[in-house]
User: Fold DUF4179 domain-containing protein from Candidatus Intestinimonas pullistercoris.
Amino acid sequence: MADTYWKALDKVRATEDWKARTLAALERAPARPRMRVLPRVLAAAAACAALFATALAVSPGLREVLGTALGSFAPYAQEVEGVSAADQGIEVRVVSALSDGNRSVAYLEVRDLTGDRIGPDTFLSLAIGGLSRQPAAYSASRYGGGRPLHYDTETGTILTSVELTVDGPPASSGTLDVVFERLTPSLRRESGTFSPSLLTGSALETVTLETGETVLVPEQTPSLLEGTELAALSSIGFGGDGRLHIQLRYGESLNVQASDLHASIYSRSHAQMLESGVFDQEAYDRSAQYFQENTETIFEWEGAWYLDTCFQSAPSDLGDIQVGEVSVMAVEGELVEGHWALSIPLENVPHRSFQAEEAIGAVTLRFLDLTTLGLSTRSDPGDRLGVLHYPVTVYLEDNSRIAAGYPDSSVINGVAYDHWSFPEPIDPEAVVGLAFDQWYVPIDGDAAGPGYWLTLEE
Assistant:
């Protein structure tokens, strides 16, 4: 599933407007306040020493990476023993987990029992629907993982992780069920560029393959790609069919069927339209043509493999065409298809839950679940089906604060769910209030609210 996702993602190109708005949003993000480590965290840190003394005992390098990955949350991680799966000579073993009712992270060792198929770029692919928390009735989920965090050359082992974040009623216990379906010995993502001057109005020679596709004859304008050696430019130009072709050559070490190359072009007039803010239908249509109406042909020629992308643009478009980067998702070695199923018992970090009746905008907050890792809420979304899409600040009894940013949100069956992940661990018992943007909800004992607006000084 991850491979399919990446291939699709490679074909999406952000507009300059989108990039500008994204950068502006990042610049507006609030700075994260510093946090004083609470005594309970220090006590937990002492207990945590046992985890790193036993987990990954054969590899101090992996043990150190695990500690770095967990960071300040290490005191709350649990050691996991006896949970492993082996198939096709590949073993996956769980070494640690970190969980509350709505977020779970597991760390795993992966090693080859029979050969040397594991390396620093090995990727483990989750099966479709291969990550879930049982038993739980969640309304939405986001997950990922499988990339190597570290490769230990001495033992031929990688440390990887999987993460599940969900919206819905928090689970009190249960398991994290993980199923992997493929191991890719080496997966790398790189990008490269070539000189735009290679694209001219001169016609290049084409050939019709036995399968019926028209492609450029290879190696008419060959060039290395600056930034990657995993592929190269073979030919670029307008063929006898009157269309623009960009032809790439796969590197000799690549698994052609599993790898993905992608060449792109942009419309100069469309970029100018975005910059001016004045809509131009012709520029818009031309850009859509460049992005959507193209074909890709993979073929072999004199012992080498090529990808020929044919764009629906003619020589008359030459002055408008801007060549983009070449993206490469390179797979080396043979894919290992298998089935690795793991059921990881979870121990939740401390919780503190509250019933509430708090109107925040058009949404009425009904329930809060506060944990060391994050905050989950359940609300009445109102007639507009809104969510609590506000940045949250956690106020602690020692007058320090933690900024949690914006939540993951969903509305399912008339109920709004929001979840914030904390950048640092907190002691739920030390929380005295939560601010949803500038609306402050005080917490005292088992009571949350009533809320009020904060002043600028607060």
The radius of gyration is 27 Å. The chain has a mean pLDDT of 83.
